Amino acid sequence: MWLRDELLKSIWHAFTALDVDQRGKVSKSQLKVLSHSLCTVMNIPHDPVALEEHFKDDNKGPVSNQGYMPYLNRFILDKVQEEFDVLEFNKMCWTLCYKKNICAQHLLISDDDAFKVWCIFNFLSEDIYPLVIVTEEIEYFLRKLMEAMGSGWSEEKFADYKLQLNTKKNCLTAWELIELVGRRYFSKGMNQQTLSMGITEVFQELILDVLKQGYMMKKGHKRKNWTERWFVLRPNALSYYVCEDLLEKKGDIIVDRTCCVESLPDKEGKKCLFIIKCTDKSFEISASDKKKKQEWLQAIQTCIQLLRLGLSSPHREARLRRRELRQKQQAEEDDLAERMKQLQVANENKQRQLEGMKKKIEEAAAKAGMEEHRRKQIQLDLQDRYRLDLEREKLVRQQMEEQVAQKSCELEQYLQRVRELEEMHHRLEEALEDERQAKQDEEAMRKLQARLLEEEAAKRAELEQIHLQQQRALSQTEAEKQELVAKQLAKERDLQAAMLQLESLERERHGALEQYEVRKLERAANKTKTWKDKVAKHEGLVRLIQPGDKGPQRITNWGPASFTDAELELRKKSWQESKNQGAQAQ
């Protein structure tokens, strides 16, 4: 059974195509047609009243995608009980949406190839609406396509395209992917047939789960003869056909977790033999060469291993792993952004601490200035005092010498204090040097911020240009919308005229039928009257009068006469045959 998410992607395309006004809503009449088509291709009994009953409390007009989704899940998807033709389902959704979104004249691929690219897009796109395919999945698909066409992969060319894509939105819609493949941007020099074969091979591998296919010889179970068949390996079965057009299927080899595949020695003139052992049967197969044999053995063994591990097809598993890897990378990027924010907060805290230290250094410098001023004042006072003392000590030298000795000691202490003050001055100069370095770092940071602001202004100008382009595109779309509305009104007027003409023809037909019935009854009455006259003439008038029976008289359709019971039954039978012949003649 197909996953519901993959079915919803195709239905989303069909729903979006019905949204002509691009308002995100579709009329109930269109949803009825869409629901009936979905039920038909998915083999589900359709209930025409269910939609009206589901939306009976909502009479506001068109229905949005969110409003239609509960009805879709309850009355359609929940009722899917058996396998159905998924290709027919996808083609129905494709038919509703592709003419509105692509122009086949500008593409170098057929509509069938465009449909296959559309299916591949639904398989590889993200489970987020509106549907888009990211750059990694685009590269994965293009690599597969180039490998299928036998062409080399150009990293430089894709890097240039990826750079162009990153400047826009870093993803593509289904119609942009079809245009990318249809314009042959990566397949220049390839003819249309090679490109079509490459798209078909990738479609079979990703969508139809064809893991491997090719011609091999198979030994029969009854006649034991060897017949060449076209084998197609899928995750749970190895099917074989008459030829590679897949029109006449000869059988299936069911692959489950109990199966095993083994190599066989050459025998009966056959080489490169191997056997597939199932629960009830074993199948002997001969490959064309040893390389093909090894490839088939490895592919079948891989299918068995996946079934034993309870995994789905390898391409779906690979898609899930790629998505998980992208989610992990996104989480790491988010974590890195959070760490950058934390570092920025820490940097701001450091800046505040530096500002606090700067204030403290300024306060210390102010205190040092006050101390130096006080020291100088003290020195001036001491000089004045020394001068007075010298004048005084000229009179008393001895006392002065004692005082000089005492002052010498004080001078030594003072010099020690001066040296301490000089060391403090050096430390203050170093602190000021650190402050100047911090200012230089702050200036560099300010220049970096200015450059970032200039880049942001340039990006804003570019975004404004893109906005203007979008405005012009919207105006052009509005003009096209008005033209489509005018065409629709003209078609509605033509339809009303046709309906009136049809009603007139219907009334004329009823009148002609009534006249025909009247004429038919008149002809029947005339023929019956003529026939009765003839019978009366031949049976009543011309007939010779004979003695009648002694029994009671019988009243017949030809007048009163005497008949026996046997004669009466014969005449009834002949009359009935004449009546039937007359009716057939009419």
Automatic annotation (TrEMBL):
Coiled-coil boundaries: 315-515
Compartment(s) where it occurs, according to its Swiss-Prot or TrEMBL record: Cell membrane; Cell projection, Lamellipodium; Cytoplasm; Nucleus
Domain PH, first and last residues per copy: 209-305
Swiss-Prot/TrEMBL keywords: Cell membrane, Cell projection, Coiled coil, Cytoplasm, DNA-binding, Membrane, Nucleus, Phosphoprotein
Pfam families named among the record's database cross-references: EF-hand_SWAP70_N, PH
Gene Ontology CC: cytoplasm; lamellipodium; nucleus; plasma membrane
Source organism, top-level taxon: Eukaryota
PROSITE patterns named among the record's database cross-references: PH_DOMAIN (PS50003)
Subcellular location, principal: membrane
The keyword Cell membrane appears for this protein: yes
GO molecular function: DNA binding
Gene3D superfamilies in alphabetical order: Pleckstrin-homology domain (PH domain)/Phosphotyrosine-binding domain (PTB) (2.30.29.30)
Subunit structure comment from the entry: The SWAP complex consists of NPM1, NCL, PARP1 and SWAP70.
Described function: Phosphatidylinositol 3,4,5-trisphosphate-dependent guanine nucleotide exchange factor (GEF) which, independently of RAS, transduces signals from tyrosine kinase receptors to RAC. It also mediates signaling of membrane ruffling. Regulates the actin cytoskeleton as an effector or adapter protein in response to agonist stimulated phosphatidylinositol (3,4)-bisphosphate production and cell protrusion.
PANTHER family: SWAP-70 RECOMBINASE (PTHR14383), SWITCH-ASSOCIATED PROTEIN 70 (PTHR14383:SF6)
Record-given protein name: Switch-associated protein 70
Species whose genome carries this gene: Cyclopterus lumpus
